[in-house]
Amino acid sequence: MFIKYDNLIIRNAVAADAIQLCAWWNDGKIMAHAGLPNGLGCTPEEIRKSLADDTDETHRRHIIELDGRPIGEMNYRNKDGAAELGIKICDFSQQEKGYGTILLSVFIDALFLHHDYKKMILDTNLNNKRAQHVYENKLGFRRIGLEKNAWRDQLGIMNSIINYEMSKADWIASRKEPLEYQYRDR
Q: Are 14 and 31 in contact (CB under 8 A)?
């Protein structure tokens, strides 16, 4: 997938991205929100091998670029016909600028319109108020559940998560006007 919106690009992650992904995934500050304050401890070679298994039908990781420079990653996983979404703006200097909302908007639109998903699902940590605001107030996701003490992070702390979903019909109804972006499969 390749999506261009203004100076933002979402593109399939490839083997050449393994070094950048490894740097991000091993950085505890970047990964703390996912319960990995010590990072993943992965290698570029492990990531290259994992990326080789990505397919549009099952799971695909993407690189986010701003003005041609990688600033984060997105992914989706096919969960029984629903796309489970993930996003990280890994460059802290590019957070809080509205990019996450824009990127998720065009990503969701492309998955609904070009990949024929009927539903989007995602979750976030109960403490991640910024993500909750974006999902609920800016994108229109519905809370469908709270899982208390759902998982233990690397430091042994229990974490709770909020689950969200959005149907294709709800997405289309919520759009005030069509999103203008460039899209191609590869």
A: no
Write the pLDDT tens digit of every residue in 129-149.
999 999 999 999 999 999 999
Which two tokens mark 40?
């993943």
- pLDDT tens string 56-77: 999 999 999 999 999 999 999 9
CATH match of 2-184 with 3.40.630.30:
yes
Half-sphere exposure of residue 105: CA atoms within 13 angstroms, side-chain side:
22
> What is the spatial distance between Cα 61 and Cα 20, in angstroms, rounded to a whole number?
13
| φ and ψ at residue 133, rounded to 5 degrees | -60, -45
Dist. CA 18–CA 106, nearest whole Å = 24
pLDDT tens digits along 15-46: 999 999 999 999 999 999 888 999 999 999 99
What's the CA dihedral at 183, 109, 71, 40 to 10 degrees? -120
First CA to last CA distance, the chain: 5
